[in-house]
Amino acid sequence: MARGTSMTLSLPPFTKAVKWLVIINAGVYFGLLILSLASRQTAGLITAYGALVPAAVVHGFIYQVVTYAFLHGGIMHILGNMFVLWMFGSQIEMDLGTRQFLEFYFWCVMGAALVTIAVSYAPFVGVDPMTPTIGASGGVFGIYAAFGMIHGEQEIMLFPLPFQMKAKYFVWILILVTLALAIAQAAGSRSASIAYTCHLGGLLFGYIYLKFLPRRGLRFLFSERYYGTRNAYYKWKRRRAAKKFEVYMRQHKREDYFDQYGNFKDPANRDKDDKGNGKSNGGGWVN
Q1: By C-alpha distance, which of 106, 103, 128, 107 is closest to 117?
Q2: Percentage of the chain modeled with pLDDT above 90
Q3: CA-CA distance, 55 to 73, in Å (whole number)?
Q4: Strand runs (DSSP E) across 109-229, as ranges?
Q5: pLDDT at site 252
Q6: Which is deepest, 27, 116, 175, 242, by most CB within 10 Å?
Q7: Of 87-96, 115-124, 130-139, 276-285, which gets the smallest average pLDDT?
Q8: What digits encode the pLDDT tens for the residues 257-270?
Q9: What CATH architecture applies to the domain 2-213?
């Protein structure tokens, strides 16, 4: 619970979205664990099809950019992710609201997946696109980024270490450590390297969401303000085209195209002098 500028040892509440994310993740983990006791092959197939495999996503398995975040490789893996989701995610949900928090969380999950896919195909990294990635770390690291940006001056206790640190410094240390681990693991375990890349992707997209998207998030795309902005853009394009046309007409003889009333001349009658008749020439042109 946040009080003043520091975080006390009191535990945060289980907010609505965080609670359901924890329940779903735990349900999937223990469901697959029980299923593996009856049929290890079936459980393995579900995990294989749900994990993020860059080569599979490129070939149409788009759903994997979301499903991988609900799969975990062990009890410590899921406990660590769910603990952070609860401790930090609850505060971010209270800041953003339930709907926007879910939007933010899955934005980070999918963003981390896209970064992972891009890096797996980078020729200088040496990561196999067939390497699977699982875990909610992309969304969790996005929450880290949000907490550091929104509550950067708030001190948090680095349990079990007996001292406190400002959230913004904690997030920067986390970024540097994750980057160092990704580089160190690149020459060794490919799966470990690509997992750390996924962490960095979550941090990046969490930052992008809060820094560059409007305060209302992606809902801005469906708001009146968005359509007003879009219409203003089209008006600007029309004005720009009109100015270009005026420049073009100044470079040519205007009287070759317009009569004294500003109407287009019929191309068939352009050579006729109609300046004194008070009328524009007839023809196929429409004003």
Answers
A1: 128
A2: 44
A3: 20
A4: 155-157, 164-166
A5: 62
A6: 116
A7: 276-285
A8: 556 565 656 655 65
A9: Up-down Bundle (1.20)
Nearest to 89 by CA among 143, 138, 141: 143
In whole angstroms, how far apart are CA 182 and each of 72, 176, 189, 192?
A: 19, 10, 10, 7
Residue 29 pLDDT > 80: yes
Write out the two tokens for 62. Answer: 């788009």
Q: Report the C-alpha gap between 135 and 68 in whole angstroms.
A: 6
Query: Do 260 and 277 meet the contact criterion of CB atoms below 8 Å apart?
Result: no
pLDDT surpassing 80 at residue 94: yes
Q: Is 198 helix (H, G, I), strand (E, B) or coil?
A: helix
128 contacts 190 by C-beta, under 8 angstroms: yes
Strand order in the sheet with 6-7: 2-3, 6-7, 155-157, 164-166
For 234-275, what is the HEC assignment? HHHHHHHHHHHHHHHHHHCCHHHCECCCCCECCHHHCCCCCC
136 pLDDT above the threshold of 90: yes
Do 101 and 17 meet the contact criterion of CB atoms below 8 Å apart? yes
Contact 156, 165 (CB under 8 A): yes
Q: Mean pLDDT for the chain?
A: 80
Structure tokens at 284: 């196929």
Q: What are the φ/ψ torsions at residue 266 (nearest 5 degrees)?
A: -65, 125
Every domain of the chain and the residues it spans: 2-213, 225-269
